[in-house]
């Protein structure tokens, strides 16, 4: 059994993917070109924003926005403590200071109450200037943007939505990647919409920001690539990856997104009585980058994980260490902000196989094995 079955996906889409790659190779355009611009147009229309700017990966997408906003030394950027390293890494990389905020156990997303507390703490201390919030749509579920946007407006903060795991999710009729002042996603292979390498994209309705981003991602180009008007980077989505993504995006819209939600419903039907399963607030829609359980303890997790391994059922721990406890952030000193829920989650979460090609038989096997291990 695969944790995320990219092999089965390729079998289903092989003819169209192979044809897309062959057409790109035949055309001989490997940087930019039709597939990239068409993908950006299709993604922007799907998310319902004016601009989609593709780039080399999700981490670059975050960094490029912070660079475009001129965030750096002396600035505070608020990030959830329970997420992948890149969300806070980019803050330090641009010279700013990440301020770690706790998450809600029910959704795994940033706790807006603790966010307000963290902002007030920074303001009262007076050493840093609050500049931005980077909420994360963890495991496919959008963060609480109505509350986040309200807090941001009250404190004059920018919002950069990290939808690396959230593409395809929604709140009501509004899709992930359309929230905040800008949003990003990742096309890492295991993401809800993934390519066969690295890739990422930025979404915004801000014309001026889009212009700067399109410059920054190509060495700070001006009217053309040899006219360099600012210091930038080299962060472009390869044409072959764009061609592959266009094929996969059609499948994503046509049936994959519905399929992962059906798989999630089946898991809940079998597991809700015995485990804490992902909670989806009313009006929210998840793209289920992962299906994550909360167990009773790290000891129970070890037992269950080892039992499932014996059954050839893969599991993953997202995430074993709070960001605030990562060695890379030790430079922040003893005053680094600590959280309550995040360390508990790091000791008790376990993600089980989740992808659009799970069969009912496979889901039942996973569920039965979990129950056997629990007992």
What does this protein look like?
A hairpin with a 2-residue loop joins strand 6 and strand 7. Helix content is about 40%, strand content about 15%. The strands form three sheets. A seven-stranded mixed β-sheet has the order 1-9-8-5-4-2-3, sandwiched between helices. Strands 7-6-10 form a three-stranded antiparallel β-sheet, with no helix packed on it. The chain has eleven helices and twelve strands. It starts with 5 loop residues before the first helix and ends with a helix.
Major sheet description = 7 strands, mixed
Q: Are there runs of 5+ residues with pLDDT below 50, and where?
A: none
Strand order, largest beta sheet: 1-9-8-5-4-2-3
How far apart are the first and last residues' alpha carbons, in Å?
23 Å
Counted by DSSP, the helix tally is 11
The portion of residues assigned to helices is: 40-55%
Task: Label the overall shape.
Answer: globular
- What Rg is obtained from the alpha carbons, in whole angstroms? 21 Å
The fraction of residues assigned to DSSP E strands is 5-15%
Summing up helix and strand content along with how strands pair, one would put the structural category as: alpha/beta
Return the average pLDDT rounded to an integer. Answer: 97
Number of strands: 12
| H/E topology pattern | HHEHEHEHEHEEEEEHHEEHHEH
């Amino acid at each position: 059994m695969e944790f995320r079955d990219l092999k089965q996906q390729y079998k289903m889409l092989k003819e169209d993917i192979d044809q897309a790659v062959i057409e790109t190779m035949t055309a001989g355009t490997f940087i930019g070109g039709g597939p990239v611009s068409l993908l950006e147009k299709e993604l922007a229309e799907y998310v319902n924003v004016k601009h989609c700017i593709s780039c080399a990966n999700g981490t670059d997408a975050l960094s490029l926005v912070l660079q475009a906003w001129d965030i750096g030394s002396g600035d505070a950027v608020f990030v959830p403590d329970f997420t992948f390293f890149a969300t806070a890494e980019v803050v330090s990389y641009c010279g700013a200071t990440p301020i770690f905020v706790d998450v809600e156990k029910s959704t795994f997303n940033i706790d807006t109450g603790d966010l307000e507390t963290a902002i007030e703490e920074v303001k009262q201390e007076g050493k840093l200037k609050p500049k931005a919030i980077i909420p994360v749509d963890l495991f496919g579920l959008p963060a609480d943007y109505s509350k986040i946007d309200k807090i941001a407006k009250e404190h004059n903060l920018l919002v950069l939505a990290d939808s690396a795991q959230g593409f395809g999710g929604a709140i009501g009729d509004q899709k992930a990647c359309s929230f905040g002042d800008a949003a990003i996603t990742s096309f890492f292979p295991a993401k809800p919409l993934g390519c066969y390498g690295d890739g990422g994209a930025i979404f915004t309705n801000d014309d001026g920001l889009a212009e700067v981003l399109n410059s920054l991602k190509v060495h700070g180009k001006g009217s053309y690539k040899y006219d360099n008007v600012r210091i930038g980077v080299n962060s472009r989505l390869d044409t072959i990856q764009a061609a592959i993504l266009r094929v996969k995006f059609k499948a994503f819209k046509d049936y994959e997104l519905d399929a992962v939600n059906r798989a999630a419903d089946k898991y809940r039907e079998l597991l809700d009585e015995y485990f804490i399963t992902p909670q989806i607030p009313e009006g929210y829609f998840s793209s289920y980058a992962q299906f994550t359980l909360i167990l009773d303890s790290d000891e129970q997790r070890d037992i269950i994980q080892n039992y499932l391994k014996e059954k050839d059922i893969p599991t993953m721990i997202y995430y074993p260490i709070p960001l605030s406890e990562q060695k890379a952030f030790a430079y922040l000193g003893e005053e680094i902000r600590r959280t309550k829920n995040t360390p508990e989650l790091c000791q008790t979460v376990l993600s089980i196989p989740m992808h659009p090609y799970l069969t009912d038989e496979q889901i039942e096997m996973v569920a039965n094995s979990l129950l056997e291990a629990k007992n």
